[in-house]
Specification:
This protein is of the alpha/beta class. Helix content is 30%, strand content 21%. It has a domain of 169 residues: Vaccinia Virus protein VP39 (Rossmann fold, 3-Layer(aba) Sandwich), CATH 3.40.50.
């Protein structure tokens, strides 16, 4: 049986020190990596085999300090830093806690939960994932009626934290994309209500667009504190936000 580390340890977040922007909480400083913050810009030659958008995406990846740091530190995605920053701010991952990661592939958030001392971590995704030491991975749909029972069995009890970094495939139409991700977040919330223990927490990705505020009203009935936050690792040009709900009171939405 793999022994899980219980020390949170310093988070090596790329770039200059920055803060998690939250609508109802004071900011905290994110830790910066050792060494110089200077970097070289990678410029790509034009390729007839790639579209302009593909070229732009590749250039952004090559010049993104979070992508570089994730590869250097062994995280499966740059998104790992988003959870690191949210956890630094809101203290979501408690020692010996039980965590469910919805839409876990490729596994960056699952890795962070394990590294930060969670007792049991279960990742769920429709896509297959390579094994992650210390985690239990399920290839399946969290909307399956049997999934809550399966997960509580694997966790050995109710979850203390449910995470969702899920996002639907974008259409390019902002209003449509916003409605689709809100619907996905609402399904994740409904699922979390079934498996969270009293006092538990829920984190989900949403997009800015107005209707994300509609999620707050029912959540405030069942959680002591509900906030929106945008971690520094979230790209500035992105409309993504995270809804962070803590102090689950029990009940259903």
């Amino acid at each position: 049986m793999t022994k899980k580390p219980t020390s949170r340890g310093p988070a090596r977040v790329p770039g200059k020190a920055s803060t998690v922007r939250s609508t109802s909480a004071s900011a905290s400083t994110a830790k910066s990596p050792s060494g110089s913050t200077r970097s070289l810009t990678v410029t790509l030659r034009k390729s007839h085999k790639k579209t302009t958008s593909q070229q732009a995406w590749l250039a952004r990846q090559l010049n993104d300090p979070y992508v570089v740091a994730a590869k250097a530190q062994g995280w499966r995605s740059r998104a790992a830093f988003k959870l690191i920053e949210l956890d630094d701010k809101f203290k979501l991952i408690k020692p010996e806690s039980r965590v469910v990661d919805l839409g876990a592939a490729p596994g960056g958030w699952t890795q962070v939960a394990i590294k930060r001392g969670a007792l049991e971590v279960v990742g769920v995704d429709l896509l297959p994932m390579d094994k992650i030491a210390g985690a239990k991975l399920i290839e399946g749909d969290f909307n399956d009626p049997e999934m809550p029972g399966i997960l509580t069995g694997l966790l050995g009890g109710k979850a203390d934290l449910v995470l969702s970094d899920m996002a639907p495939n974008t259409t390019g139409h902002a209003a449509t994309d916003h409605l689709r991700i809100i619907a996905l977040a609402e399904m994740a919330l409904e699922f979390a209500m079934e498996i969270l223990a009293p006092g538990g927490a829920f984190v989900a990705k949403v997009f800015q667009g107005g209707t994300e505020k509609d999620m707050l009203a029912p959540m405030k009935k069942h959680f002591a504190v509900v906030r929106h936050a945008k971690p520094p690792a979230s790209r500035k040009e992105s409309s993504e936000l995270y809804v962070v709900a803590t102090g689950f009171r029990g009940g259903r939405a």
